[in-house]
Design goal:
Chain lengths: 443, 443
Amino acid sequence: MTMASKTGKVINLGLIGFGTIGTGVVKLLRENGELIERRAGAKLHLRKIADLDIEKSRNVFVEKDCLTTHAEEILQDPDIDIVIELIGGYEPARAFLNEAARQKKHIVTANKALLAAHGDEIFQIVAKEGVQIGFEASVGGTIPIVRTLREAMVGDRIKSIYGIVNGTANYILSKMTDEGRSFAEVLQEAQSLGFAEADPSFDIEGVDTSHKLAITLALAYGQRVQLKGLYTEGISQVSQQDVVFARELGYRIKLLAIAISRGEQVEARIHPTMIPLDDLLANVNGNFNAFHIIGEASGSVFLYGQGAGMMPTASAVISDIVDIAKEILKDPLKRSSGYFASNVHSRDLPLLPMADVFTNYYFRFTAVDRPGVLSKISGILAENNISIASVIQKGRKESGAVPVVMTTYKSCERDVQEALVRIDNLDVVLDRTIRIRIEDKKL
Amino acid sequence: MTMASKTGKVINLGLIGFGTIGTGVVKLLRENGELIERRAGAKLHLRKIADLDIEKSRNVFVEKDCLTTHAEEILQDPDIDIVIELIGGYEPARAFLNEAARQKKHIVTANKALLAAHGDEIFQIVAKEGVQIGFEASVGGTIPIVRTLREAMVGDRIKSIYGIVNGTANYILSKMTDEGRSFAEVLQEAQSLGFAEADPSFDIEGVDTSHKLAITLALAYGQRVQLKGLYTEGISQVSQQDVVFARELGYRIKLLAIAISRGEQVEARIHPTMIPLDDLLANVNGNFNAFHIIGEASGSVFLYGQGAGMMPTASAVISDIVDIAKEILKDPLKRSSGYFASNVHSRDLPLLPMADVFTNYYFRFTAVDRPGVLSKISGILAENNISIASVIQKGRKESGAVPVVMTTYKSCERDVQEALVRIDNLDVVLDRTIRIRIEDKKL
């Protein structure tokens, strides 16, 4: 890229990883370069791009001598101010970020997996070296969740956060709900359209969602980033039958990341959840992401946008680059303390054990159609302190199993687990009971 | 307040205006003081509060010697770093802010009326004196609209913004829609509940909405804050009959602030608008506010929250105080350039004249029930290049007037105005035609 600068000031960037998002970043720097320079107060000059494959055509013009296959050329270049890491995965991304910080370079990354697993180590190195790290693109794509939690709600206490943060899982559940199709069918379609990976477990089993919840928890509660202990259940067990019963009960099923402040502890869990049709999150469809944050002072704050994709994610990356560029311009020598330093403590998040969680439940029992079954099931529920809110039992079949659906008032997860083991051992119960949690303030 | 500080660093605050929001700010500083100190890296010490009435009980503890009736005591206090202006209105707020900047004090304000009318002058003084101004609370309350436009979308071009930014107007329209009641009845109820002012024109005639749109436009398009030329139409003419027809057509009526980039110009207007029921904004009810921003790279970004109220607004005020406190801590001597300096130019926003706007329309004609009326009306529309998308004409009455409802494809405001003058002059048309604009991507 050319070096012409209207402001006379230049911030040099090095990009590691020239894939989809990296290409989006290069496009935005090129197409909106003047606009960004005016807003940032300096020209953002992309000095070097490192990628293993520098021959591939990427539909954006880059000067040949800007490309390298050696990330070291960026990490060791004394003129580069900010390193943008967009290769994803744990290694060598982790090594590159640590080396960048040691070389006193600021960092921008979209790597949620790395931050969720090694965020603590990275934030400590960053703070020690006195450089900044931007990671707005790592959670929620264009949704300004990092800014909202760290800045906009800085004076508030976060009561709870409910997030839809995986576009693939949300796309599949939306299609199942709106088109009455099975999980397997929709997944296959999503794979053939390129919306889901060949190995989709990362998205559909809640792994990606747990990474994003780990980062969100650290931001909201000022604790160490930790994945351990986050109860994680994916959507592969959600059946069309449950989608239909959910609708009959006035709910939609969404894969939610949930964080709720419980006194000195935090309740954190990821699972398919029934939410009322008029809930804001129930209307987040397709591959969109959203967060519903409830603050003690602020009340409800709801944020919605593209959680992934080339240009949306690239826009979030640029926002972090500009923030850091402005810091460098203000104070080029004495670099500020780490991005996280004043906010996060190296203390473990005191997680409420999942067995102690109270919530509402949907059960679908598969029972023989015989008198007394309902009384046996409800008897066991009562013995385990579980109060029934509603029952749906559809007309009897000539033979075989019938579904019996129940919703409950707030009940303890431990009690529910115990009750379900006993119920599933009844000889009148023919299949494993389906349990989906409900978030419904009216229950 | 006591001066005990864990961080050993103190930022001194002076509050001018101890009304509802001011009391909320004092409460938050008191109740969340430790949390805020940990996050800000310094204690925020409220050194002085100025208000004309310092005797009134406010349900929050404040030391007597902290209170004064003279704002000058804050403005001239060399130890005060940040002045928080929460008196509202034009004067003396304007004089106080200008004096604060001249005394090299940073400023936080929630005063949208002042910024909309005199923002340009204030931002220039602030830039000249090298102090910062925070005004997140002036638009959208807890919604981080300033941060989103200035920071999160800094690398993107804003295609359009649709906002519901006045809680009172939205409360009235929501009640009219959900409860089938008249404008006058709901307004009266809102007044008796304290949700609407005795003189409600500021809220219901779109004045407050125009202030917030003026500030939003400056943020999105980097231009001078200007109120002049913003087409503004309130909700006082919205009738229950139109609410019902809207529903029949699949719409809800909302008071929208609209900004759309049109090449070198910007289209900006405020008026009651029919929007599809499945639009995110159609589900923003009661006194909530929301923005739907569409960026070229980011796509749809939707933000929702409490636009007013004591604690939500106070939380937004604190967010600005902490941002500025962090800046002061980094660089206490050389203060940074004005908050807006790199973003806003003293250039007028090139507004597209309202007559040149193309949009969709809903018309309700009040016509005599006689053959040939429909052909006369549709003839005039056709002569003015207005294409009809749908017609609703309900069963004939024995005598008198019948409503004829039409929606149109994209038409030019100038053509519509001309056509309506001609139609309203027809002797078969008995009353002034009702015109409500529609925002519907499917039309």
